[in-house]
Amino acid sequence: MTAPLPLKIAAHDFRVFHGQEESLRGITLNIPANRILGVIGPSGSGKTTFLRALNRLNDLAPETRISGQVLLDGQDIYTPSFNVVTLRKRVGMLFALPVALPMSIFENVVYGPRLSGVRNRKRLEEIVETSLKAAFMWDEVKDRLTMSGLRLSGGQQQRLCLARVLAMEELEVILLDEPCSGLDPISTAKIEEALTILKAKYTIILVTNNTKQAARVADETAFFLMGDMVEHGPTEKIFTVPDDQRTNDYVTGRFG
To answer: How much is the pTM?
Structure first.
């Protein structure tokens, strides 16, 4: 029998409140290392709130409070002693809208390492090549690294943003919030192929409104609805029930 993978992230009765509204309701979820977790559900179900909670981006929203625990390698990331800057180096995030910086492709990728104190030019060049290769982009841009990242196509900008996340040497977890929502099928395929390879090194949590994408790349899938996690399991099991039927069943209370 195959030994279970070690846990990377564990949420225990985790709740997020925005003012008086409870956006996440008692989420308990174990996320193994080196797996892709797909998070699906209708708009407003709490998917992005959960994702942002994993590197404490919700802290930036006014009147936000939490209860319960989120553990990273067994440590509660919400304890006062947990360094948030260090957390965000370990848990990087890619958003739906690509945010290329108004600088060269090279400088986009090394932005984080420079902030962390990396100055050696040879080391920076190694980081750029490694990160762009991991994002399936090196062959497209290796001869024009001085070109502005803003001149790239939308799909290339998203992969550039992925390379920028991968350039952080402390990175352990990659959070993706609908990273392919505005991309063409070819760019989407390249992102998905990169993720399936990257999980050998990282733990990946992918929020997506594209259930076919979750079915293609996720090892496990969690279904969120109105702030609750109502289903979680191996992806092939989750998708034995059509998504529209699942949503209808929970809304009508069939599984309540």
So the answer is: 0.91
Q: Dig out the tokens for 10 from the structure.
A: 């564990």
- Express each pLDDT in 60-113 by its tens digit: 888 899 999 999 999 999 999 999 999 999 999 999 999 999 999 999 999 999
Cα dist from 151 to 100, 144, 165, 176, whole Å: 9, 11, 19, 23
| Nearest CA-CA partner of 107 in 89, 85, 124, 88 | 124
Question: Which helix (H) or strand (E) covers residue 21, if one does?
Answer: strand 21-32
Distant-in-sequence, close-in-space partners of 5: CB < 8 Å, separation ≥ 6:
32, 33, 34, 35
User: Which of helix, strand or coil describes residue 44?
Assistant: coil
Are 35 and 219 spatial neighbours (Cβ–Cβ below 8 Å)?
A: yes
